[in-house]
Amino acid sequence: MLRLFFEVSAHLQSPLTWLFLILGAMMGSFYNVCIYRIPRKIFFAEARSVCPSCGQPIPFWHNIPIISWLVLRGKARCCGARIPVQYFLVELFTALLFPIVYWLFPFVISWETGLVVDSEEMMRCFHALAFTSLLLICSVIDFEHQIIPDVLSLSMLAATPLVVYLHPDLDWKSALIGVILGGGILYTVAWLYFLIRRDYGLGMGDVKLLAAIGGWLGYQSILTTIFWGSILGSFVGLGVIIVRRKMDLKTRLPFGPFLSIAAASYLLFGQYLSEYLITF
Predict the structure, then answer these.
(1) Alpha-carbon span 148 to 138, nearest angstrom
(2) What secondary structure does DSSP assign to 222-252, as a single string?
(3) 124, 189, 213, 265: which sits with the fewest CB atoms below 10 Å from its CB?
């Protein structure tokens, strides 16, 4: 614990940590735009951000990530409508996520001659940032609307060849098997559930998302992602049943957020999760 404290303290003294924190907060604000506009199919409807309640343009000083929500106390200045806490949480989470990813993939190395950029580690870092960011957007949309838009999942699938080409550790065979295995397992489970229950227990959005996860992380990630995603989803589902005090097996929970959490955890802390899964 003491070692972790000193490591975090050292990271906090780095200007790059604060640069990534500010960048994460700014990107979180953009992600909120994606989360709101993509499922409503209005992504290019307005060049500027407008109030969803009254349609008034939002001035930039009311759109500062994290700070504006706190200053405005969660209410729009133009009409007094409540601003969902989701906006604040997404920006705060992304602001914390970006420096943590950089800590895990530090691509700037300090030598006696100055600073040196490790190009391979930089690609790992950017890959992790893009991957976790896309999963965050998918998760919040799925949680709110019970859908994972094709424009996100299929775009991730389409980008798989580029990811494999740029990433220093991925190979074509691993990615291809990952796409087939990831999509195939959930597709089979979905159809078996339908044949038995005559109902859709899994959406095709989950199938496409897991296929994309397999392409971006390789087939080695699939079983671990499904295992931990299912465990987490089961615990949350049980918690919902307990809170509602009603045993309802038809209670629907989006599976995408749990897959996303498991996949992101595999990418960032995969060694520990895989080792625990083997011993389990």
Answers:
(1) 6
(2) HHHHHHHHHHHHHHHHHHHHHHHT---TT--
(3) 189
Judge contact between 60 and 76, C-beta under 8 A.
Answer: no
* Nearest CA among 200, 207, 218 for reference residue 259: 207
Give me 240's structure tokens.
Answer: 């919902």
3-class secondary structure, 200: coil
Which tokens in the block code for residue 173? 């065979």
Length of the chain: 280
d(CA 147, CA 203): 8
Tell me the average pLDDT across 208-219: 95
Q: Which of 261, 185, 257 is nearest to 219 (CA)?
A: 185
SS3 43: coil
What would the mean pLDDT of 208-232 be, rounded to a whole number?
93
111 beta partners: 114
Question: How much is the average pLDDT of 124-148?
Answer: 95
DSSP 147: -
